[in-house]
Specification:
2 copies of one chain form a homodimer. By secondary structure, the first copy, chain A, is an alpha+beta fold. Chain A contains 5 helices and 5 strands; from the N terminus they run H-H-H-H-E-E-H-E-E-E. Chain A binds a DNA duplex through helix 3 and helix 4.
Chain lengths: ~150, ~150
DNA sequence: CAGCGATAGTTCCTCGAAGGAACCCTCTGA
DNA sequence: TCAGAGGGTTCCTTCGAGGAACTATCGCTG
């Protein structure tokens, strides 16, 4: 996709960006998430070039974020579905939404609102600590080498 | 940067990807976050082309995610710092890390561990509801049009 | 059974962005 | 006065994005 190979870097940000490191992929995932699952629909909705859409879908299927599912044999028809991996990527999308809403939405306000089914309220996502449950921001973290760190 | 203009779309994912929708920007932010703040350092650390680094830094400064700060008059020397906007983008990076750790780290395990300063434990970020505090995944959400939705 | 439309791509062409190497300028310290 | 670091800029090549046109299969309708 891009010239540099980010997938081999010892960094989970780089490896994630290797999968969705251009703007169309997250938008494709968003659309699949809301039920726009077919090639033609996606192309119309996004206004993406058919060529690029073909490439991205192939890439996302290879990355096991989407799967291509045949829903009709005659004629052969496909739809794209989120895998578990893909569904968890959508959590990342909700965090993107939050940042975009906060810093880029401007006067008009957020284009979309999210209602948390569990509590019934309009809400946004907040980053919390998996251990203690308290808010967890990048400024609250200390970084340490992990088992997969490059040999030093 | 890319040919299509994502900044004008009525979607906070698109607008966010307009800012960091290629792999280098998140890596630059990560480095600035951990204290690698100068052009030469960044270039060496990332292995990025000087030309592309120049472009990305300019772009991130324009997007008000970084600011260029002169720390020496004679000779003129600069460092790049995170703005508030940028610091909040780092929260997004921690979520990317989490996904990458989970799905792309493989046998070796995560390259980096994060210790939550508040509780002292190695932890990862978990998406929670800003209202009720319970876990909030993309599958727990209902989507509604917001004030900034395109006229329909 | 001819023609049309929907689905799902593929091919071709052009232009801009990525990568890399080389070059430039300023200032400092030996 | 010359090497070296900091911080870029310029130039060249190649690859990917975007867009338009083309292909192929099947179902429906007149």
């Amino acid at each position: 996709m891009q010239r540099t190979d980010f997938s081999q870097m010892a960094c989970s940000i780089a490896r994630t960006m290797d999968v969705i490191g251009e703007p169309w992929s997250p938008l494709i995932l968003r659309d699949v998430y809301v039920g726009i699952t077919r090639f033609e629909e996606l192309q119309r909705e996004l206004g993406i070039s058919r060529k690029v859409l073909t490439e991205r879908l192939k890439w996302l299927v290879e990355a096991e974020v989407l799967e291509r599912h045949r829903y009709s044999e005659h004629p052969p028809r496909h739809e794209y579905r989120l895998t578990d991996r893909g569904r968890e990527l959508c959590d990342l999308l909700t965090v993107m939404v939050r940042w975009g809403d906060r810093w880029l939405a401007g006067e008009a306000g957020p284009p979309v609102l999210y209602r948390h089914r569990a509590c019934g309220e309009i809400a946004h996502v907040a980053p919390c600590c998996s251990v203690c449950g308290e808010p967890m921001h990048s400024t609250d973290l200390d970084v340490e080498p992990g088992p997969g760190a490059a040999a030093g």
